[in-house]
Design brief:
Elements (H helix, E strand, L loop, with lengths): L3 E5 L6 H9 L16 E6 L5 E6 L9 H11 L7 E7 L5 H14 L7 E6 L10 H7 L7 E2 L8 H15 L2 E8 L4 H10 L1 E8 L2 E9 L3 H4 L3 E3 L4 E2 L6
Parallel strand pairs: 1-3, 1-4, 4-5, 5-6
Antiparallel strand pairs: 2-3, 7-9, 7-10, 7-11, 8-9
Length: 240
């Protein structure tokens, strides 16, 4: 299975430009509200030669009009199917810290809390100073392993691809879990069969009991229904 990576961030943070640079595509990259109305997906090749699917989602805006909230959130729900989320932040924006906090809050509201997120500090070409990633990340209340890049000039993109690859290797580790999924959450049963390795299924009066190996990036989806702790992990092998 080809991993899916979702790009999230505010309008004009440079998500489309970043996707263009990584994939060599011509995704619309305009400086206007909702330039990316529909998710756009491109293939991106990692340093090892492995391919991933990278999806550009609709950009956040400040004080989203009420009539657009439902459509906006529906568009972002595809994040829940992603292996990894790239949070693209314009570090030159005067409200960058506030925007970063808003993105984190919305991800939590969508049920994506605990999902693997790699933060991309974009537009470093506008800073004109030596970049200290840890200091920049700390300034915006982000994890210190955030990756500084310039989607426009290409600076830092090689490092970003390396970080994506190492992060995927971690989140794709298989973890043994045992969950009791309520009947109203049958889509999760299908997801377990599709993405995991089911070793036991039992139908009970209160739901479906599943035991098997599941990729680490999906654990947050199943956490509310966990019946037993993780017992072992296994690293999947990939073909270049």
């Amino acid at each position: 299975q080809i991993p899916v990576i979702a790009l999230v961030g505010y309008t004009n943070a440079g998500k489309s430009t970043l996707l263009n640079s990584l994939a060599g595509s011509d995704v619309l990259a305009e400086d206007k509200l909702f330039a990316t109305l529909d998710p756009t997906t491109r293939r991106v090749t990692l340093p090892s030669g492995r391919e991933v699917l990278m999806t550009d989602t609709v950009g956040f805006i400040h004080k989203l009009p009420t009539m657009l909230v439902a459509a906006f959130r529906a568009t972002l729900e595809e994040i829940l199917e992603a292996h990894l989320v790239l949070h693209v932040l314009d570090i030159t924006h005067p409200k960058a810290a506030e925007q970063a906090a808003t993105v984190r809050a919305v991800l939590t509201e969508l049920g994506a809390e605990g999902y693997p997120v790699l933060t991309v500090l974009n537009k470093i070409d506008r800073l004109g100073v030596d970049i200290q990633p840890a200091e920049l990340a700390s300034e915006f209340g982000l994890q210190t392993d955030a990756v500084p890049v310039s989607a426009l000039t290409g600076a830092g993109l090689d490092l970003l691809l390396e970080r994506i690859e190492t992060t995927l290797a971690h989140v794709e580790r298989l973890t043994e879990i045992r969950v009791l999924v309520p009947f109203q959450e049958t889509s999760l049963v299908a997801l377990f069969h599709e993405r995991g390795q089911v070793e036991e299924v039992a139908y009970r009066h209160d739901g479906v009991l599943l035991r098997g190996m599941l990729p680490a990036y999906l654990l947050p989806r199943f956490a509310p229904f966990l019946q037993a702790g993780m017992t072992r992990t296994r690293v999947p092998r990939h073909s270049p």
